[in-house]
Every structure is written in structure tokens, then in C-alpha cells.
Translation initiation factor IF-2 (Anaerostipes caccae), 355 residues
Amino acid sequence: NDIIKKLLISGGGLVNLNTELDFERAEEIALEYDRIVELEETVDVIEELLKDEDEEDTKDLVTRPPVVCVMGHVDHGKTSLLDAIRSARVTAGEAGGITQHIGAYTVQTESGTITFLDTPGHEAFTSMRMRGAQSTDIAILVVAADDGVMPQTIEAINHAKAAGVEIIVAINKIDKESANIERVKQELTEYELIPEDWGGTTIFCPVSAHSKEGIDDLLDMISLTAEVLELKANPKRKARGIVIEAELDKGRGPVATVLVQKGTLHVGDAIAVGSAHGKVRAMIDDKGKRVKTAGPSTPVEILGLSEVPFAGEVCMAMDNEKEARSTAEKFIAYGREKMLSETKSQLSLDDLFDQ
Ligand code: GDP
Ligand code: MG
């Protein structure tokens, strides 16, 4: 009663025995009574599950395609570059497939497959980092050759570095008369991105999203970098992935684009995705084709979830539907809202990523 009175007097509004106080407030009050309160860490159910499963039998690991995102200052050509890559690599037979947009796409090059994230991926990026489940292997830092390093270029560098993502610099718009490649290289040395021909280790690719010059070189460099990174995954285990984007479709219900990171996802698999659960009813790839399975580094649209999950949420295949449902219920119990509000307040990356 004392505390309730105090809170009322101090302008805390109407409170009762069941009112939840934030930690700082509780701490203040406790101090008035010469008590010290400690914050009890809540255990994240998903984190626990991920911890359990991270032991991987090395003999089952096989090379997987790199997952690449495009970052950089607004108007430096992120969208144009992603479009140029996509259209340059679409074979005649797939031509109809380009209209399909699922937030990620894969391209085939002579040196292998590459998966591009093609989404306003900041939410995914941040909450994935919170989960320690990184989605991106390589970040393409787009810098316009006529504009040079700008504020969001620097932000992008910082985020990529913090995430431990390999950076490849794409100097874009080299078709422009005012392009100055050397100046961009010079400016980036300040951020420890030093080209190989200057004694550094960063790959620089001069490109033009308009004329398509340098695009093939960029793709080669991505594949080369991926090779060095020795990216591996076990396709035999139960699937785990990350939601890139999700929406409620009028006809199809909740639709989520999932990037499979480990294992293979099958039609018919029971899955838990945050507070959503279900059974994969159908999967559609980035070319709009129905598929029955999706292996590591493959983006697919999945149908069959109980609700629309959030971007950045972990998607896990479970042994059966009952288990999937109970995982989702546990997730809800552990306070999804709290976790997401923490995630959202972390950073605002809207302009760094392509949108
Ligand atoms: P984003 O904001 O980074 O996604 O940039 P956009 O892809 O939307 O491009 C911004 C502007 O730059 C658009 O007007 C594009 O047409 C233009 N642009 C993009 N790439 C090139 C290029 O290689 N050469 C030239 N000349 N213009 C480009
Ligand atoms: Mg854009």
C-alpha cells in the first residue's frame, strides 16, 4: 500500500497490485526502501532451441551458395544493381520468372549459385543479429562513382563490420562522365577498405548498373570470396531458416519468404516460426515455380502458417505439428512483444538496404 500510494503521489498514474513496473522504476522504489533489485534474465525459448541444435556433424557439411545483400547510400544504385544482376542472369527459359518478387533471388553463374537478398531487410538484419543467426555472408557496398562516400555509406560499413560480414565494394555509375573511381578508392581507405592493388585486401569492382559493364566481374568476385569463406551447411538435417518478409495474402493466407540456412525444408514439414506454426502446404521458388524441397541458401515462399510471422524470425522444422505448436506457444509465453520492441528500437537501417 505504501508503494502504491507513493507511485500515485509521484504522478505514476493509477496503479494496483498487478501493475507491471519497468525495471528502472522498480529499482528506484527499492532503493527508497534500502533494497537492491536484480534483473532476472528471461530465457529466450528460440535461443535455447538453437543452442541445442548447433552441434553439426562435419561429415554432412557441403558447400552452400553465398547469401549477399546490397548496402549503401540512398540513390547510389542499390535497386538498379540488383535489377541489372537479375536481368543479366535470367536465362531465356526463365524469362517469365522475373516478375516474381519474393524478397530474394538466386542467380547461376559460371562459378556457382549466388543468393541475393532483395528486401528492405533492416528488420531482418537486426533481429537476426540479435539471435546470432546471421543471414548474410557478403555485403556489396554500393558507392556511386560521381558522389563518393556519403553518410549512409559509412553507416553501412559500420554495420557490415559489426556483423562480421565480408565487404565487396561496387563502385557504381562508372558510365557517368563525372565518375571518379580513384577518388572513391581514396575516400574508402579511411575506413580500412583498401584495394588489393594498393596493398590492401578489399575487392573493388567498378560497375555500371545502366550499361551492365563490370556486372559479370562483380559476380565472379562474389563467388571467389564465397570460396575463400568456405561456406558450408548440412542439407540432411531438419531445416532452419529466417523469415525475409511475410504478408497476409487474400487468397493464400499467411505467406512467408524464408531463406533456408541449414537442412532441407520439405512440403509437409511441421514448422514453428516465432508465434506462428503450421505445416508447409506449398513452396514456391523465386522463379514462381512450385518446389517440393529447398536446401541451404535457398529462398522460398511458404504457405500453411497459422499467422503472419515477423521478418527476421527464425523458422524451424519440427518433428511433428504438435511440437511446432507447442514451440510457438512457448514463444508467445516468453514475450514476443518485448523482444521485438527491443529489436526495433535498436537501429534504423531503412536506407542502407535496398528497398
Ligand atoms: P538506390 O536508392 O540505391 O536503390 O538507387 P537506385 O537504384 O534507385 O538509383 C538511383 C538513381 O541512380 C536512379 O535514377 C538510377 O537510374 C540511377 N543509376 C543507378 N545506377 C546507375 C548507373 O550505373 N549509371 C547511371 N548513370 N545512373 C545510375
Ligand atoms: Mg532502392
